[in-house]
Amino acid sequence: MITTYLFFGFALLAVLGALGLIIFKHPMNGAMSFVVTLISLAGLYALLSAKLIFAIQLIVYAGAIMSLILFIIMFLNIQEKDLPLDPNRWFYLAGGIVVVAPIAGLLIKISKSLPATEVTVFEDGFGGVKEVGQLLFTQWLLPFEIVSILLLVALVGAVVLAGKRGVN
Amino acid sequence: MSALDILLVILRIAFGAFVPLSFVAVLVWMERRGAAFFQDRAGPNRCNVLGFRAGGLIQNAADGIKLAFKEDIVPGHVKHKFYFILAPMLVFITALLCFAVIPFADVLILGDKHYIMQAIPMDIGILWFLAVVGFGVYGIILAGWSSHNKYGVLGGLRAAAQVISYEIPMGLALVSLLAVYGTVNLTEMAQFQGRLLFGFIPMWGFVLQPLGVIIFIVAAFAETNRTPFDLAEGESEIVAGYHVEYSSMKFALFFMGEYVAMFVSSALIVTLYFGSYQIPWFTTETLVTYARPVVIAIMIGLPVIGYFFAEWMKRNNRSHYYRENDPRQKETAVYVALLWSLVAILEVVLLVYLVFAHGGVADRILVALLQIGTFLFKTFLMCFVYVWVRWTLPRFRYDQLQKIGWEKLLPLALLNIFITSAIIVSFG
Fold first, then answer.
1. I need a labelling partner for B266 at 20 to 30 A (CA). Which of A161, B163, B174, B411 fits?
2. Do B134 and A77 touch (CB under 8 A)?
3. A112 and A79, same structural domain?
């Protein structure tokens, strides 16, 4: 019962945060509302008993990435007068809504056609650190390694690009 | 949920919330007395209530009252008042939330029920700490940015850059520790440390991870923005850094947040590396089995400790020149009387336990209390290390700070991971 209320609370906060991200003009307000979205998403993961994903969402997205973005906003000290004028933005927004509306209709139709099944309680330890780790490093080892090589390539690329500017 | 369940939930949350808060007073006092001791001066010795100075603790009450009654100013040039007010709350709340997953006693077994002794009985343990520490940075960034002050922005930039950089060696030091313990759950880590290495050395984290403990402690110092890493505040360069525009209770929240963070990271260092609540060579089961001899030993030990403490107070708490009816000696006499009545009460309680209540549930509760005491004592000692370092080492320069983080601690932590995993793979 209480999980249902929590779900609606987190879902509402997530949507409001996402709205704030695109509506607020000041970058700091946008970034802070995005933090709200990320934290509510972590709450939704926790409701799905995905404890590891909950922790990673908080550490990586809400913690590390967003604090770097806030850091950059503070570092560059972006004010509203530095932002480009965007007189056509309401026009673009309306156009975007018109384009996206059919997809939203489709999604609503799909979610309505879902069969109403009982919520199953997962066995103990589902989504825990040990269980996810076991799965990741036995059944999904190759995809995991490929993704980590991809991340390594991106990291090396970032260092090379940043280093070049320093030499000149 | 039975009444016992609800009582234990309330007790655990109360412990998690109020112990860090009470330790703020203890730590501020320790900082002042410690500073005075290292600088060979008297320290806080004037504030008193009816002549009782409680060794300087009354100074804290005076400071608290001063901060609460100061005018609470939000400077006119602050544009984003919401963030300006949110920032100190974030710093304080995140510091307090970190303590929620730290176990302060072994799992309490009452009848057939098991109670995990953490404020929030959650098994992601150390991951929760890393997540919440990350949020602490928001408070600092928002405070520095919304103050709209050059010193504030500089302090915020320095603090954020420092905390983000030192999270990396801290996380890497944790990786090798997790490989040793094989779990992220702090209660399981604490239970692991109750074992013995070669049958006689307690398997505490610092024995198994001698390099990791150094990396972690240095990184923890940087995370809490304490000297020698306190250039976010750097009084001599940027006045007070990110909290330069704050006054009254908003400043007090930053101030208390710093000490709560110091307490929590000491508690975490103790939990990870110094055996948590474990009394060396006495596991929970041993203590429960031999509860009566342990209690008798405590009953004999208490008056001895009380005697030496009373003598120490009499020797030190007196005027250092001749005074008619020395008021300080009168003060000491009252303290000594209080001390002995405390000892007497404890003796009576323990005697009642021995005669009427020993065995079963009472033993478990007694052992839990002993372990809480051990945990708090160890944390207190670790907090002293913080004070000790603060008044011993000078502040680093900014480039030195980044160099230590990236060029020394990071490779060392990586090396530690390789050595640890090699040892675990070949011997474990």
1. B411
2. no
3. yes
